[in-house]
Amino acid sequence: MDLGFLLQALIPSWNSVAVLVIFFAYLAVAGSILPGKLVPGVTLQDGSRLHYRCNGLLALVLLVGLLGVGSKMNFLSPTVISDRGLELLSTTFIFSFLTMVVLYAAGCRSCSKGSSLKPHITGNLIHDWWYGIQLNPQFMGIDLKFFFVRAGMMGWLLINLSVLAKSVQDGSLSQSMILYQLFCVLYILDYFVHEEYMTSTWDIIAERLGFMLVFGDLVWIPFTFSIQGWWLLNNKVELTTAAAVANCFVFLIGYLVFRGANKQKHIFKQNPKALIWGKPPKVIGGKLLASGYWGIARHSNYLGDLLLALSFSLPCGISSPIPYFYPIYLFILLVWRERRDEGRCAEKYKDIWAEYCRLVPWRIFPFLY
Length: 369
Prior knowledge:
- Helix content is 62%, strand content 4%.
- It contains 14 helices and six strands.
- The strands form three sheets. Strands 1-2 form a two-stranded antiparallel sheet. A two-stranded antiparallel sheet has the order 3-4. It has a two-stranded antiparallel ribbon with strand order 5-6.
- Strand 3 and strand 4 (142-143) form a beta hairpin.
């Protein structure tokens, strides 16, 4: 692929704009009208609480079903995304940038005193642009932070399914592609089955909506997390049975740690007296959970996330570093984020945090880091 072809492929078209608009419009309508559990968010500093309608699984299944019917009736091509991957990438990036322009302008003009919309302006343009000004901006009653992360996860699956359809169409479907697709489908479906757990994550409760989250949710998640699928379209990998089985074990262990740690944290926040692994939880200072996975490492969920990321790349073999972009990037990101979390927690919890660190010395990797 030469540079001229690449630049030409990156030019947005009206078709890519239409795909993106229809996708967002569907998510907005489906998220508003489909039934789902109404989950209260954490109590904010001003005493208010947002409520999140967790109907993402139903919205996703319905969307995939509609796309399947449309493909069967020749209303659309199942490879519509994989045929326009670079177009959609640039279109989504432009949309993210324009969205941030609007969010920045709205934040600067806001006079709200509430925790969700109160502007946090440092005077540093780059800092405010990157980290955002408002905690929970909304558009037509839609919480944008929750909406964007849902769009990113669904977009990742839709890209993968289109890549899968193209591999079937080209006759290049392989065991590696099947493993990669299977792991991603299980991970994404699990995310939406437990979508309410997202309401207690740091991104939702504490991060303001800036370019970091907008770009991360809409561009980074769907387009970089799917690199392995794109790579397998053009590269044949023969896995041994032992390698495939080992890959499955990495995925399973990663899933158990990731989901188990996040579930324990969510349950603890809902009910601090709930049993952890069949025993009463050990709590530091009445605030910090030091039982279960959180008694093994202070960021044990990050370990599970890293193992899952590795399992998505292992089906590609070891002939190229390109499919390992995601786990390498995620490792750097999570170590950076862990350092940010540690600093914030030390400032917020003070002596309680110091006691927790003494009791649980490992940050992410037990006995290593």
